[in-house]
Amino acid sequence: MSQAETGTVSVALSDAAIKRHAADPSVKQLRDSRRPVVFRYHAARASGSWYVVTYHKGKANPYSKIANWPALGASDFMEALPKILQKLAIDPTASVAVDGWQTVGELLSWYLDRNTRDRNKSTKRKDAIRSVIKCHLRPRLAGEPLADMSQSRLDEKLIWPLQEQYSLAYVRQVFGVLMGAFKQASKLKLISANPLADLSFPDFIDARIEAKPGAIRPDQVKAVLAHLISLKHEMPGAVALAVMMLAHGTRIGETRLAKWRNINLEDREWFIPAADAKTRKELIIPLTAQVCAFLRTYRDQQKAVNYAGAYLFPARNGQSINPKQADDLFKPLGAGEWTSHDLRKVARTCWADLGVEHQVGEFLLNHQLPGISATYIHTTLKKQKRAALECWHEWLDARGFAQLHGFDAETEARQPEIVEPSKAAPNKACSAA
């Protein structure tokens, strides 16, 4: 049978031989001319798998996969081969898989480097993964052999010690990073098997993880606004960041990146590009008259200190403030009692109490639509979002927001009677028709 028919070439197997024949798609596998070894190319031709061939009563047994290349190079594979053949001679059914990485630490080092260079992850997400690996996964698992990873070992070395010190939500986050590393390595065939493939967090701890309650209740919004008003001259940038988040329910990440070119005060819209959004989905937020007035004043404040740059919240290097700088701005604002995310939470809570329909609220928050909804719903609900925010900002005006934006004397003179969201009747302007 010819090579063209079998797709097999007999060679002295080496890394160089593998790379040389990778350019010929007709070659499916390489058979070593000196040893009972076969190398098979993967579909992309940039990687492949090592197999050994054993015989019983003159007939070839099913090939035994040993490892993936280039995770395990030719010289390392050939060095391990005698012991592999000896093990198979004693027990033809024995597990003989070998990975290029021997420890969890080696896998984590690869994943950390890959995470650092991943352009699809936000800086905040990459920092979180790096912190988890550095502070928890490496110290506890780096020396663990990949071959010994199991549910009981993972529970003993990682999950159970962590749950004694941290919240279950955080332990689950650490577990998720580890699972992501193993899953990615397995998908790229860098490990022969994923020992964690069938595990989930409830396999270790089945207690329900409750959502963290918001630190700001609707009846506390008035006090929060009063605190912002007291700091508006001392810390204009920090106050503006908080106002934009409270007024629109936006995330701190997408708010700190806001550019003046994406703020259209004439058409009264704020455009958030997909690259700046956590969901990687662009968002158009209607701007109310109150917010437009606030932004004009804030822009004048920036110009008064000779700043005419691109960002609403600039750092000294001319770029936007980074995640840590944004978090630091909130420390004097929240005084340890609430964080930036609590502004987003209370906004969503109040929208529900004011009668904003669920779907309109989800669009404003730029949440990822679930399942089939993401396939069939392609509207942006622009009118409904504007009506919801106008209703929300009227409610905020009655609690001091008007003193921050100073929009219009007539508007201030006809503020609605103060009622808490839980007692308010559904506002027609807040409902999506």
In summary, what is this structure?
The chain has 433 residues and is of the alpha+beta class. It is 48% helix and 9% strand.
> How many separate helices?
17
Order of helices and strands: HEHEEEEEEHHHHHHHHEEEHHHHHHH
**Tell me, what is the CATH class of the largest domain?**
Mainly Alpha
**Shape, please?**
elongated
The largest sheet is: 5 strands, mixed
Number of strands: 10
Assigned CATH architecture of the largest domain: Orthogonal Bundle
Based on the model shown, name its key terms.
DNA polymerase, domain 1, hpI Integrase, Chain A, 9% strand, alpha+beta, 3 domains, 10 strands, 48% helix, 433 residues, single chain, Double Stranded RNA Binding Domain, five-stranded mixed beta sheet
Describe what you observe in this structure.
- This protein is of the alpha+beta class and 433 residues long.
- It has three domains: 88 residues, Integrase, DNA-binding domain (Double Stranded RNA Binding Domain), CATH 3.30.160.390; 100 residues, DNA polymerase, domain 1, CATH 1.10.150; 213 residues, hpI Integrase, Chain A (Orthogonal Bundle).
- The protein is 48% helix and 9% strand.
- The chain contains 17 helices and ten strands.
- The strands form three sheets. Strands 1-2-3-4-7 form a five-stranded mixed beta sheet.
- A hairpin with a 4-residue loop joins strand 2 and strand 3.
